[in-house]
Structure formats: C-alpha cells, structure tokens
Write a structure and sequence with these properties.
- The structure is a single chain.
- The protein has 9 helices and 7 strands; from the N terminus they run ααββαααααβββαβαβ.
- By secondary structure, the protein is an alpha/beta fold.
- The chain has 2 domains: 106 residues, no CATH class; 115 residues, Trna Endonuclease, Chain: A, domain 1, CATH 3.40.1350.
- The strands form 2 sheets. It has a 5-stranded mixed β-sheet, sandwiched between helices. Strands 1-2 form a two-stranded antiparallel ribbon.
- The radius of gyration is 22 Å and the shape is globular.
- The N and C termini lie far apart (63 Å).
- InterPro entries: Restrct_endonuc-II-like (IPR011335), Restrct_endonuc_IV_Mrr (IPR007560), tRNA_endonuc-like_dom_sf (IPR011856), Type_IV_Methyl-Rstrct_Enzyme (IPR052906).
- GO terms for molecular function: endonuclease activity.
- It holds the Pfam family Mrr_cat.
Length: 226
C-alpha cells in the first residue's frame, strides 16, 4: 500500500511539473506571437478597415478579412516563429486568431480620428495632427519648429512627465534613424520620456533599438488614448 501511494504521488508530481512547464511554454509562445502581431499591427488594422464590408442591408461581410488573417498566419506567423511555437499555435488556432482579432480591435482608431487623419498630406500637417491628438489625451503640447528641433517635433507635458516626440509620416517602415534622433532629443530637451509616432510599422531593428534605449513606438491611432 505504501509503495502504491508513493507511486501515485510521484505520478502526480510529474503531471504537475509537466503542466507547469507546458503552461510556461505556452506563455512564451503567446508573448512571441503578440510581439509579432504588434510589429504588423498598423497594417493589420488598415487591412481590416479595407476588407470588412457592410452591404446595403446591414449584413457584415468578413470573408476577405478572414482570408487575410489566414494569409498572415501562413506567411508571417508560421514563417517567423520556431517550429514548437507554430505547433502550439496550430493546436489552438481559434484561440490565437481571437487573440489577433482582439489586438486589432483594440488598436482601431475611432471614425472621427480616421477622418482627421485622412486630411493629413504632409509631414508638417502630421506634426500638427499628432499634437492635437495628444492634446485630446490631456497633454500640453509645444511644436519645436523645424529650424532648431534637434530631433524633436513635439514636446508634451502631463503630470510629472515631459515627453519628446518624433513624428514620421512615411510610405515605408520606420527605421533606426528615427529612434536615434529622438534619443538625442530626449537629452537635449531634458525629457524623461521619448517616443516615435508614425503611420507605418517599425522595422525589427528599430523595435530592438527602441527597447534598448527605452523609446516608445506608437501608431498615430494610439495618441488620443495615451
């Protein structure tokens, strides 16, 4: 009896440890998945906006968006993550699809902000737009002026924070140079926070450099909710 009880206890310990390790592995997969989705989030948000349609009868057609999601999993997620992560995601594809949808939904800008952004055509107009969006979030904002910005387009203050912002209206992903500029501007303007805001996604190299230098990377649609 004692030996049987000990064997049962040993099995329970093994199962418990296996469950803990399995959950930790799944947590790491979720983290890597979220990071990869976050890297492409501005594009995903734009695609969802373009591909989800409502007809004259009020019927929502998601077929093209769902096809885009499948394409994103096949060409980005499954091609970028390690095989073990891919296997876990495939086993729980519905859960990870819902996770992606939730991230996209959270990032969606409201219709009014979309209309405001649609009027932006130049870099100078984008700076003004970003300043207005930050003001909506309760920041006091000053435009630095192109002649002496030292890598800063906006200086914003709220509470105890003094934030320097570099605004990039581009047709390509934002690279390291924007992060490097705002790092220098943070010291020059005596700010405790620094951010780059853009209409585009950020390159993997820019994301890595920003993490090393404590620089925040934002899509413009996040500004009003900061």
């Amino acid at each position: 009896m004692i030996e049987a009880a000990a064997a049962v206890a040993a099995v329970l310990v093994v199962l418990t440890l296996w469950g803990i390790l399995r959950e930790r592995s799944l947590s790491r997969t979720r983290h890597r998945f979220d990071a990869l989705v976050g890297e492409h989030l501005p594009v995903l948000v734009r695609k969802r906006r373009q591909l989800v349609r409502v007809d004259d009868y009020g019927v929502v057609d998601r077929s093209r968006w769902e096809k885009e999601i499948r394409y994103f999993f096949d060409k980005v997620i499954f091609q970028s993550l390690p095989p073990a992560d891919v296997e876990r995601i495939q086993e729980r594809l519905a859960d990870f699809t819902a996770r992606l949808e939730a991230a996209v939904e959270a990032r969606q800008a409201d219709a009014a902000a979309e209309m405001r952004f649609d009027r932006v055509k130049t870099g100078a107009e984008f700076e003004l737009f970003c300043a207005d969006e930050l003001k909506r979030a309760g920041w006091q904002v000053m435009l630095t002026g192109a002649s002496r910005d030292q890598g800063a387009d906006l200086i914003a203050e709220r509470g105890g924070d003094r934030l320097v912002v570099q605004c990039k209206l581009l047709s390509r992903p934002v690279g390291n140079y924007a992060v490097q500029e705002v790092v220098a501007a943070r010291s020059h303007h005596l700010c405790n926070r620094a951010a780059v805001v853009s209409n585009q996604r950020f390159t993997a190299s820019a994301i890595e450099l920003a993490a090393t230098n404590n620089v925040e990377l934002w899509h413009w649609s996040e500004l009003a909710r900061l």
